[in-house]
Predict the structure.
Amino acid sequence: MSTQKIPIRCMFCDTDSFKEGNCQKCRKNLLPSRPTKEKLKDFAIAFGIFFLIAAIAGIMSHYGLGRYRISHPSSWEQSIIISICGFVFILLPIAFWIAFGKDSKSDKFHRRAKRHLPNFPERALLDFTKAAEEAKNLDKHFDILKEKIRLLEKLGQKKKWQDCLHSFLNTINQKIQIKGSKADISLFLKRAQIHERLENIQEALSDYERIVTIKNVWNATKLEIEVINDAKNHIKKLQKKSI
Ligand SMILES: [Zn+2]
């Protein structure tokens, strides 16, 4: 199907348009930012979490914690109020920024792709592609790609999802080559997952094994330890397959 024949559904009036830009009926943007209602909800959630942190910090600072104890206020209510005021002043702008910060182009396409999934999978595919292209970093790109591949699989387009993975594999290989010995665990993990998906068992195995061995070189964080343990499980599974 040519791109011009794949509709874009307006999220405001449900009219289908065939060109990017504004809706032909209500003239609103076909690639909008998050609705204000959603932003307000995010703000309320962020604020609520910060408020809770502040209250807990207030209680903790009143009932000891050594040098963090607030010495002046006499009652625990005062401690909590001081803590909440302090936290709210510092964290309010952060909550505001989280909720009302500008949407990236990638976010907009990603959101629209998900909206198109049930009715216009072809449009969802185009939007996923755009969202991945515009993604700020490799992690985000990879996450969006996974969604796109799931959709291609559902549509039975095996050759297309394999091509997709091959092209991302090239990107990763280039990154690993540029970074040389400084290439990090997440790059090898992505490559291992792609090889596994493409059923290149030996390649996947070698990348998972590499992840396990670099553990000794680096001070592994909790997340890295999880990755390493996961890699070990994959190695066991793949070794069984390759026998
Ligand atoms: Zn419209």
Residues 36-62 form the longest helix (27 residues).
